[in-house]
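Notes, Module 5: Reading structure tokens.

Key idea: the token line is not a picture. It is a compressed description, and you learn to read it the same way you learned to read a sequence, by spotting repeated patterns. We will look at two proteins. The first is printed below with its tokens.
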Amino acid sequence: MKYLLIVIAVVVLAFGVLLLMTGNTGELKVEGEVDMKSPEVVPQTPESSLKTIYLAGGCFWGVEEYMDRVYGVVDSESGYANGKWENPSYEDLIYKNSGHAETVKITYDAAIVDLEVLLAHYFKIIDPTTLNRQGNDIGVQYRTGVYYESEADREIIEDFIRLEEAAYEDPILVEVVPLDGYYPAEDYHQDYLKKNPGGYCHIDLSKSVEVVIPMSKYPRPQDEVIKEKLSELSYNVTQLDATERAFTSGLYTNEARGIYVDIVTGEPLFTSFDKFESGSGWPSFVKPIAPEVLVEKSDTKLGYLRVEVRSRSGDSHLGHVFEDGPKDRGGLRYCINGAALEFVPLEEMVSRGYGYLMALFNEAE
């Protein structure tokens, strides 16, 4: 299927060249082509903050387009990596067993998005437990792999995969090895899905706009560190399941734009645009920043059933969720202790490592 599409693309390209040779110099426009990296979305990036990682995840058309949409990615390029010889062609992978993997070279602004976030996106679009296959594409060229150029990146990758293993029954088969040669693919492969919006793609590109928060970025400190770090009230709330008195938290009336994070780990939990005035005396939100960052548990301490809310990474007691929130916004009220939260203002998000969430505020405006 994919090879047939490539043949068609080559024929179309040849036809375009023929038109130019016969004197037709009219501009060829591709309907539906969208510039996903307008200056309003991703600002110019200084060379000093640019980093590169190489991801193999099956057909590179879809992986390239998906990663190009991730906030903080400056460029993505389809190519061939870690094979038997230099400068391979697409036909070498298919017919000559060159051993290369279809790979996407990702250049990203490390001041905005880091490797762990990119890996979390990557794991959303692959099946890491299959060998030499993704979607309908089968062959060694469609294997999954993360190819790095520094030992620091290797440690991050291995730590990330170690945490991911708990989510799978079968072993993770993603190849994690140093980059051993990378060569850009032919021009007709580059930006293929921008040129051909209805072209073959084995992944769901809409997932690129979903919030991704890697648990590995926000490890829980040792108990003694937590006790030393927190105030007595925050410690009692997060570690001993206490409840602060209503109307005592300064965050209850906070109207500034930004995010609310777990005071123990720094893991993002809520946004300012999901906060609302509930009249309860505690900071209230209609939803978390991403469903996976919260853990819900049954709570009968008061003699009746309530749903307790805890943070994923820190296992901090946060509060409870009730079904009396705004009906037009989902009907839920996450009633959260201010002592369990830290507020990070919008203007500080990039400097404090939350730049990868800035796109949320672009969407909300």
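Here is the second protein, with the sequence above and the tokens below, as before.
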Amino acid sequence: MTAPETTLRLLYMEDDPGLGRLVQKRLGRESWSVDLAEDGERGLALFAEGAHDVLLLDHDMPVLSGLRVIERLASENRLPPTIMLTGAGNEQTAVEAMKLGVGDYLIKDAAGAYLELLPSVIRRVMEHHRLEDEKAAAEEALRASEARFRTVAETAADAIICSDRADRVFLWNRGAERMFGYTESEALGMSTRILFSDPAGAPLTKGTKPARFDSRGCRKDGALFPVEVSVTDWATQHETHHTTIVRDVSERKEYEEKLAYMAHHDSLTGVFNRHHLSAVLETETARAERYKHPIGFLMIDVNRFKMINDTLGHRTGDLVVQAMADVLLKAVRRADLVFRYGGDEFLIVLPETDGSTRFVKDHILAALEQWNKASDLLDFDVTLSIGVAHWAPGCGKSTDEALNEADAAMYREKRASAMQDAGGASVA
């Protein structure tokens, strides 16, 4: 039960006292009270002592991280309306937190814009939590009274379907009509098997399915869409029936996929980001050791990029970086992996190179030459410095050392290019 907004009490778990006071000050303007805890363990103790309506927490805290706090409260079914405040680059953590029941998350930007967004996000999460509470209460009421069930069913946004032990539909609410496209007259008497894309059209009974599961719904027109399904058995004097509640989770799945993509990809170029590199190296080195194949590394830097930014502006610099990412993607094999390693630096990981690294470098330079001829973005050619290194199982060095070799080779090439540049100008 949430408190009236005028007496709202929040708990903020944050190991940075300065950030904690900023949140207290901002939410104080809403007449809300904010208790602070410096770590997850202290936060759980305060949560157990007081009646807090909303939980705010940082993901990276000493003793217990934000994710561990959420897991503990969720496992005990004590998770209140919750918002995670996280730094940029931690979107994957936010995805995991939302799967556990967190209502939303905000990125703590350096400019402090998240502080102004926070009150509206709190209100939205509380409203969503209120609706979820009402839905749970409605489901309990459905089991208690068939008359009350029918009243609630006809006003619910979710699809609510009742079927007999042979899985024939005898109740089909308006939510089911909207979701699946069948009218009530069309749906009554048909099998629930045709509504889901499970193998062999498995019947929706607790004897063959978990009480809750994810599936794909099948609309009347044949379209498939992701759904969350909850099945409850209930008995009359003569037989057992099934109540199936179906929620269309298309928007949620799309949002989760977007967050997962953002966690691994650079927002400017669409190539992999540096955060994803460690996972890729772990996978590729294991594969290389299994099949005894080498891995090639190309460290790439855009020459004169600082001059481009300083004289033509950062927007032009961004366009150059995007263009170079596109050149690299088109020049490598589908199996090769392109990363944005820094501001104007890229890294290409070449699995199973077998000595083809030099060929890939030449292919990139040829593709860049074609781009320079076709592009009118700049009035001079863009050039790249490319350092090459290899790693192989049993070579006696780590992949980090190979990356350092590629980086050093790239800077040697960059210095050589600078010496050739007219007047010895820098190509940074």
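Summary for the second protein:
- The chain has three domains: 5-140, 145-250, 265-424.
- The mean pLDDT is 86.
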